[in-house]
Amino acid sequence: MDALDRLYDSLDARLRPEDVAVLVREALPSLTRRQRSVINEVAAHASRWHGFTGMSTDYARPVGAARQVAATRVVFGVDTCPVDADDPVSVLEFASFVGAEINWDPDRADFLADRLNREARAAAGIELSKRQYNRRFRMLRRLSAKASRLERVRELRRLTLIASAGFVGAIDRDRFRADADAACFIAYYTARRKLRREFSLTGRVNPFDQVAEALLARCRARGDTDWAMIALACPAWEVLRHLRPDQLGELLGRWSAVTRSVAGLLAGLWRSSEIDKATMVVRTGVDSSSWNALAGAYNAARNGWIACLHAAGVPDLLDHAWPGKVMRVMAADLAFWHHEAGGGLHPDTSVWSRLPLPWEVLDGTAVCTRADVEAACREHGVDPERSGWTAPRAHAAIARFRPTPELVHGVSVSDPVWAMALRHARVFSGKPVRTGVFGGQDAAG
């Protein structure tokens, strides 16, 4: 694989920006002296700690149903039916196929309520003992449940990538390779967006740094740049203004669909959780990981949607139904740190608390106009446009690159080997610290 192929594969992974910079330097032999100097400055950090890191270079991938499929084959004695154990649809089709032997209905899989009794089994022509019938029913129920979990994890991973990298999953390899300058910008910019959050009092780092600026400048200098491909990852005015009306309309539709879809998922999670809307401090039992992943996807999609409306010159279409942003939940220890450091809740949290829930605005059960959002922002000292409440979020300045820190649950650690030991001991995780991982002594000591 050449550098462009490895950059393409990085779109679905989580490489450090400095590692991506090394591949960019290899993929673009025509870099000017100035551009090469800027990229070398970042790429030089890839060899830090001899390139070793204890942090995963990928997002968590779902575990397929191979084990459950194999067990089902044994129980039903089926070897010929093909199945993709990593595809939930294929797994359910396999379950329906083998389940025909016992008239199994995936919509009626409750073990206590939906099993056939002796008379019903006889009427259906099922010549199995009660024990063998129950065994098959249980197996299919487990296989169906596994397919459902697999689908949820796959969807959550897809939305996590949308939050961090937009619609890069819609870019095929040939299109990516056809425009090396655009490809390198997309790979590096999304790597910067994928940086993990640090446990700090400051906000997220600006992903647009000196390398991103140098690579985008190469795209500006050419007349045949694939701006529509770049817009899939970076829906900023600088990019969107190059799109044709049909391209802009298609992208607008993509962002709108994701915004509404994720809002529906958030609504379901909100109803099943006990989250204090006024503080958004996480409570025991709240699935904070799923909430924050969905909130990130929603806010990214909402920002892309609003950016496309502005680029099309029709932002007033949402004036009478303007959905707000969604706040991430905050761990109690981070909230306590904010308080002890003399800070308080982020002003955006107060705005969020003041407004109707975004999914209720989107489905028409609540009213929230643009004027309502602006009034809530003024009430809490927030600039509605600069903060992204009523305008696309934009980074005015070019950030200065900082080497990717080795993080343990959001805490920066100076050495990756020490970081791995801390991670194994569950330090900073909020869980009981494991003993015996530091030479037999309790880590708390």
TrEMBL record:
Full protein name: DUF2786 domain-containing protein
